[in-house]
Amino acid sequence: MVGRIIETPDCVAEGAAWLAAREARFAEALEATGPLPLRRRAGGFSDLLGAIVSQQVSVASANAIWARLQTAGLTEADPVAAAGFDTLRACGLSRQKIRYAQALAAAGIDFAGLRQLPDEEVVAVLVSVPGIGRWTAEIYAMFSLGRADVFAPADLALQESARLLFGLDTRPSERTLRTMAVDWSPWRAVAARLLWAYYRVAKDREGIR
Questions:
Q1: Beta pairing partners, 5
Q2: To 10 degrees, the CA torsion angle through 85, 104, 52, 67?
Q3: Of 1, 88, 91, 185, which is the most exposed, with the fewest CB atoms less than 10 Å away?
């Protein structure tokens, strides 16, 4: 069953108000961050490729690589599939990410069909493609499909933000943060937006592209 879909800033504001009422530290974070961004994307190959580009690099590096891919016309499946190694490498992709990008181009994902699948089935379809792990699938579900109750606890910025906001001695592991986030359902994707926004305030840099 497909749950709540975040479509507008009002949806994000509704989720943020629910979280602030449930958890005092979220209320404090929201005061520091102000209104949260919608962060909705159109969906499709380009969004998923962008998530692959963002894996394990800084936001600034990911933005630079993405800009080069855009300039080269390499953000859709057919051009990526046809591009040679040297062309993709010149845009800043590592050997591994070139393999992932071309595997994605060859995967034939039914992007429209993903919108009809429950969250866990979306993740299962996406992680079957080489180079797409759970983090990438969850980011796609949150931003490109608008799923309101998806979280990405493997994200280092979310972990660090949670450490700061909740006064933890150490950065929580993926498993620990996933367990913490159970209490933030059915608005876990808004909790993620709030933690990313708090990370930006606390660290003076972006935690997500």
A1: 147
A2: 60
A3: 1
In the block, tokens 């057919």 appear at 78
pLDDT above 90 (res 209) = no
At residue 26, the pLDDT reads 98
Domain boundary among the residues 143, 165, 190 is at 143
> Is the predicted pLDDT of residue 1 greater than 90, yes or no?
no
Q: How far apart, in whole angstroms, are the C-alpha atoms of residue 68 and residue 159?
A: 30
Strand, helix or coil for residue 25: helix
Query: CB–CB of 59/209 below 8 Å?
Result: yes
**Is there a domain that residue 79 lies in?**
yes
Q: What percent of the chain has pLDDT over 70?
A: 100
Distance of CA 190 to the CA centre of its chain: 12
pLDDT at position 90 over 90: yes
